[in-house]
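Supplementary Data S3. Sequence and structure tokens for construct A.
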Amino acid sequence: MLEGKSIVVTGAGGGIGRAIALAAAAEGASVVVNDIGAALDGSGGDAGPAHQVVAEIIDAGGQAVANTSSVSDPEGAEAMIAAALDAFGRIDGVVNNAGVLRDGFFHKMSAEQFDQVLKVHLYGSFNVSRAAAPHFKDQGSGAFVHMTSTSGLIGNVAQANYSAAKMALVGMSKSIALDMQRFGVRSNCIAPFAWSRMISSIKVDSDEQRARVSKLQQMTPDKVAAMAAYLLSDAAQEVSGQIFCVRNNEIFLFSQPRPVRSVHRGEGWTVADIAEHAIPALKSDFYPLDVSSDVFSWDPV
């Protein structure tokens, strides 16, 4: 379903990114496998992972080239798109998957911890998408797939930086979908549940957390990869501006913020009126302070 297409997948040296690169190649795409080879906290760099995935694709009869640029560097993002154009003559899709984690409780989080996560997840996705956008516009087609997270959509503890970046990605994806729809360009998000290096960093210090991790280990990246490959294909040409979630064999469409209830007072509201009337009337529709595991509380099927 991706025959003749050229796709860039960031953070594709392992985990979900690797699975997406392999799935895209299996569907006929030529793939730029991007991975800087950094540790989970963003430190270091090893060119090996990207080249290993390229070798897997080529051994299976596909076409791929490696790129080790950093998504957080605008020039590096331009180099990724240039790699696709140089090797395959075109660019048809971008999967923004690269990420780092610097978890910590908000009252202890440093500016550097916050900044680094946003630089990779949010700025990185902007950089690569922006580098591809003029080419998509000129050819009248293209697809963006951005990896968001239920940590942003629902919430999670000790991840203010990660949650902020992942929620911001949703807004950016919707704006791209609106701005570029007239050029035949699509933009969608996936919130993935899958065992990966990033998920493996979850702190496990209780039976409840061990049980949660055990469930996550059942959710393999290839389940997410199939959805990403579909969104890159022409079969998804009428799908844009949406938020999907893949959890093992389940695919969810997420809601997007819309008004749920209102109160009106013809003479306007004083502070006291809000306290006495507005909030009591709205309170039954308040959202609880859930985390992702509260909402997705059942076993994966």
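Construct B, processed identically:
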Amino acid sequence: MIVSRSPVGEIATALAANGLILRGGFNFCDDEAAPAAGSAAPAKSVLLVGQAGAAPWPHFQRWLERQSARIVNPLDTWSCEVIGAVAQEFGARAVSPSDRPYLPFQQWAMRAEGVKPSPLGILMHPQYGLWHAYRGALLFEEEVSLPEAHAANHLCDTCVERPCLKSCPVDAYSGQGFAHEACLDHVRGPRGAPCRSGGCLDRSACPYGAEYRYPADVQAFHMAAFAAL
């Protein structure tokens, strides 16, 4: 059944206290192999949680300053802590993109928001461009009343120049996929300083959602995590 009172508005308010937002959701079909909710029973609904731009960064930084020991994956740890508290408040189970075995977050996102992958593999959002992320999800034991998702305008379809495929010094992105080792070698090497300090050059070359572009220190943080610097 569908719950009589949708908690979506209250959940959005709770997440906003840490700069996070709801990124859509959907109800699983009866024949789907949905992950478990709070009990052993398969979840009936999922709400995705994420960010637009770098809104969570000040909240994360304040949290990080209070930690007494070095944390291996601090942003994941913070996200799990924040989203987990919201899940507990609203009777949901919190899951993360870093959970093993991996959950199909990208497929969930395309279903929840109607977005599609860019040439870089990052999902292109019609408002945020490439400057957004999914930090977790809330799984519910009952169906949640949700608006129907509609296909989003895919900005990559109208982009002729494709600057996102022309800015990387080692052509890490191509029709053959992502050259992971070539990218890592470059970022870690002497010519990779611009990437280390300001983030992926291909990603920054995308003209869409520029007002949501992560500041240089945020991009440097993510690049350091990617390259294990």
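Residues 127 and 188 are 32 Å apart (CA to CA). The helical segments are 8-16, 57-65, 74-89, 105-113, 180-188, 193-198, 201-205, 216-227.
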